[in-house]
Amino acid sequence: MQRHLISAADLTRDDAVLILDTAEEMARVADRPIKKLPTLRGRTIVNLFFEDSTRTRISFEAAEKRLSADVINFTAKGSSVSKGESLKDTAQTLEAMGVDAVVIRHGASGAPYRLATSGWIDAAVINAGDGTHQHPTQALLDAFTMRRRLIGRDAGLGQDLSGKRITIVGDVLHSRVARSNVDLLHTLGAEVTLVAPPTLVPVGVETWPCEVSYDLDSTLAKSDAVMMLRVQRERMNAAFFPTEREYSRRYGLDGERMAKMPEHAIVMHPGPMVRGMEITAEVADSDRCTVVEQVANGVSIRMAVLYLLLGGNEPAVSHTRIEEK
Amino acid sequence: MDKHDTHDQQDTQSDARPVLEGPDIARVLTRIAHEIVERAKGADDVVLLGIPTRGVFLAQRLAAKLEEITDRKIPVGSLDITMYRDDLRMHPPRALARTEIPGDGIDGRLVVLVDDVLFSGRTIRAALDALNDIGRPRAVQLAVLVDRGHRELPIRADYVGKNLPTSLRETVKVQLAEEDGRDTVLLGAKQTQ
Fold first, then answer.
1. pTM across the whole model
2. Do residue A90 and residue A174 come from a single domain?
3. Is residue A325 part of a domain?
4. Quick check: B84 and A26 CB within 8 A?
């Protein structure tokens, strides 16, 4: 039995499609006068955030509240963690309080996996981003946005993303969003191309299920969706490119480049955007840019994940990676 | 009714016998449509909401009959009750079905819930909770194709296609052309494992 969501690579195609289909029904709750379902009444969920986050934390909190769960927010700043408490002791404190699920964001890759497999807690663990490793709910909401835009809301039900060509551009090296997206999009049958300066392509990328290119202009014309990544200054400890200006000239998306994309193609960004760096204001504010839509879809996806992991007596999602160990 | 009981065991009932056939179902729905018009004095403000899966098809058929009788468009939709069930924690999470409320909403209108089988009454209790989050109808009524008894809650149907006295060892299965390829109601023995 698998109760955790640690990595997008753990999901089977059927799991992923079930999550997307469930999210499509959850999205309709947002249109109702009372945006609330009684499904997780009496369940306690802790949002355990060791790293800064606006979008993801608010999105999880909104999803939890719409499903009537009791929500406890925990941020490392202002908690005992700043006094030197370890992850293990924090986890055991939560366990003693009778928590049903932990949504964790941590700066160290593998922290959610450790929490899920250590035996410190009984609760379900949902990864909300760990270091440069994984951010599975982001990949799910990106896939959901693509399916809605490229196939259609109702037409997309039960469908994966077979044959869709997705280009991911920018700081792949530091990006958990890129890793999760490559894993999930591959599972869903899409063809992924990474575009980045050679210094920002991770070692071992040849083992990933995707193509790599250093030339943005040549890949734009054959993309159904282009996902721009933020250059993560806070994780950089070396000079990966000469100047910001050179970076945005070669790897930034401006109106001229957007015009080279097919008419139906969309521009995505996980946020936060740095306007003028990887994306110009003109592109960010255009109809083809789905940034705001992605945020709204994030709530639906997280409701779906929480329902499928916690809504019954056992999870409906069947992925297996941790069981093997 | 408990969908778990009736729909999941379709292959286990070899000796199931039909209690309603296609033409019977059509006649029953015509009668219910007339009863709705009679009781609602013209069905001016009626909204039909079917409970997925088969209740939705019954609601659509009822709407068509009502439109024939009244010569007016009858709003029809669906109401998924999965997330309002009282046995959610006893099974793995179920796939969700569509909730589709007609454009004008349900506030101040007469909502007729439509389902295939009325059994424990728990589905209808969940449906009443779900309605509560969507709006405030003038009144709520219930139409079912088959009432098989064994209520566990104080709930009754306003319009019943057929009262079917059953034992708890029996299963009632409704098949409709839209979903199963044919119209019939089957009464069979529950397989004991």
1. 0.91
2. no
3. no
4. no
Question: Which chain A residues touch B133 with a CB distance below 8 Å?
Answer: 32-34, 36-37
Which CATH number does the domain housing residue A191 bear?
Answer: 3.40.50.1370
The identity of residue A114, as a single letter, is R
Contact A307 B129 (CB under 8 A): no
Q: Which of A103, A149, A155, A148 is nearest to A129 (CA)?
A: A103
**Tens-digit pLDDT profile for residues A95-118:** 898 899 999 999 999 999 999 999
Contact of B31 with B152, CB cutoff 8 Å: no
C-alpha to C-alpha distance for B91 and A263, rounded to whole angstroms: 46
Which candidate from B92, B133, B135 shows the least CB-CB separation from A316? B92
- Tokens representing A1 are 């039995």
Choose among A258, A34, A13, A237: nearest CA to A147: A13
| Nearest-Cα residue of chain B relative to residue A39 | B83
Q: How far is B151 from chain A (nearest CA, A)?
A: 24
Interval B49-77 mean pLDDT: 96
- Structure confidence by residue, pLDDT tens digits, A212-271: 999 999 999 999 999 999 998 888 777 888 888 999 999 999 999 999 999 999 999 998
E strand segments, B68-130 = 76-78, 110-118
- In angstroms, what separates the C-alpha of A29 from chain B's closest C-alpha? 9
- Residue in chain A nearest B92 by alpha carbon: A312
In a shared domain, residues A158 and A207: yes
Binding residues of A for carbamoyl phosphate: 55-56, 105, 135, 138, 271-272
Domain that holds residue A300: 8-135+295-318
Q: Which of A28, A153, A300 to mutate to test the interface with B (most CBs of B within 10 A)?
A: A28
CB contact under 8 A, B134 and A37: no
The span from the CA of B166 to the CA of A6, in Å, is 48
Q: What DSSP designation does B51 have?
A: P
Instruction: Answer yes or no: do A149 and A204 share one domain.
Output: yes
Do A147 and A131 share a structural domain?
A: no
Beta strands in B23-137 (DSSP E): 46-50, 76-78, 110-118
- Based on the fold, state whether residues A92 and A141 are members of the same structural domain: no
Domains of chain B: 23-169 (3.40.50.2020)
The verdict on residue A323 lying in a domain is no
With contact defined as beta carbons under 8 Å apart, do B92 and B138 qualify? no
Q: Say whether both A114 and A239 belong to one domain.
A: no
ipTM of the assembly? 0.85
Whether A64 maps to a domain, the answer reads: yes
Domain count within chain A? 2
Q: Is A154 found in the same domain as A117?
A: no
